[in-house]
Records
---
Amino acid sequence: MKRLNNCLENKKYTSIPIWFMRQAGRYLPEFRKIRKKNPNFIKLCLTPELVEEISLQPLKRFDLDAIILFSDILIVPYGLGQKVLFKKNLGPILENLSLDSIIELNKSDFINRINPVYKSLNLLKNSIYYKDKSLIGFAGAPWTLLLYMINKQSPKSDFDKKLIFKDKHLLKSLISKLEEFICLHIDKQIEAGANVIQLFDSWAGLLPKEKLFDYCYNPTLKIVNYVKKKRTPIICFPRGIKKEDYVDFCSLVKPSAINIDYEVSPEWIINKVNNLPIQGGLDPKILLTNKENVKEKVDYYLNVFLGYPYIFNLGHGVLPNTDPSMIEFVVKIIREKNV
Ligand code: CP3
């Protein structure tokens, strides 16, 4: 049984689906081993056999309900022709953006550049896990991608608002191009086997309130409507917006589920989103503390969401210094409560 699809499609409380954002990644020694031998991160994301292996690494260790494709949200800017480099401890660095060449780019150029991503999903669809697990494809939302593409590096806690919002023509053209190519990227992932989509708007929280509609809600709505037509559930994560804005987001965008970050009170939001499935919430830093504390905090989420269509996950990705045994511990707590 695919617990995650079941929860998203039937919107009922059954046994809790579990997966972790960034479950395939740097906290796993078996990932680090492969990464060491593959210094070019984008190239690694475009090597199907390795992507398959990395995507399945967490499934081999833990009783999770979903495989998430090993890739990155910045594969879309790369597909659009903007080079992306991942430097140690610096995060991603993007080269200068050329709007003209992006405007000229056609769909087949894009697909040709990142076709191995879809081949990887095909391999995962044929894996032994596929029968019982959901296969999650994903993309960055237009605002977060636009910000990386113009800012050319992670904005961390802030960015030069004047620089980003200066050129209205650039913003408008880039947003609409991104909407189009994000839909294409999702479409290809679904065609290759993804049966759940997660949309990461990791920097939504940096938008001033008066810009949320134009840059977050509205572009996301277009993508959500597109994915719904493909009969595939889509989970949205507008990370960092205020709790009241999460409520507006849900009523306007109507995703299949909403991922909350750890600033959002679960007790508060549970009564505000019309029984929409809720995912995540637990602060990933909790997993760096001790088991007693972890159990207390996990139990808190489980108790609040008892009887509600809830998907266990974190309020952001697993941190690189997480001990893998903590993930195992969390899964055990949930499974023991909830057979
Ligand atoms: O397991 C999974 O979740 C699948 C793989 C995945 C990665 N990135 C692999 C990765 C996913 C879903 C992402 C999404 C992603 N990438 C987001 C949205 C989620 C979030 O965390 O907010 C964002 C903002 C990015 C952009 C990005 N990619 C950054 C800022 C960095 C560097 C720092 C970091 O967070 O790791 C990356 C690199 C990256 N993406 C790594 C991995 C495993 C580390 C690469 C390395 O080994 O250096």
---
Amino acid sequence: MIGKLNHIAIAVPDMAKASALYRDTLGAKVSEPIAMPEHGVTTVFVELPNTKVELLHPLGENSPIAKFLERNPDGGMHHICYEVTDILAARDRLKEKGARVLGSGEPRIGAHGKPVLFLHPKDFAGTLVEIEQV
Ligand code: CO
């Protein structure tokens, strides 16, 4: 059912430091920080030949990654995003298999302007999973 790995999201306490790490130490192509107030994060996109890494830093109050950074002050992998072709069919199958879909269970428009859903980390080997319809 799942297709390509779309991105890996890493929450970081210091965006400038994390950007420099990916750009200068790892030698990757790194975007400027992009504010996404509707998602409560500032994002830096790290482009790799086969996928993307997204560096996330909290923006505004009630950022969805604020608690994660409280628990992981050095930062850490926040979620992994897999592509699906039909998000409603994917959701129904996942629910049928006993996986918990977070929130209302209805897809929301994610950071790339496409419908996304998040799946409970306890049901996926301790990893928050995002599925995105492409
Ligand atoms: Co994501």
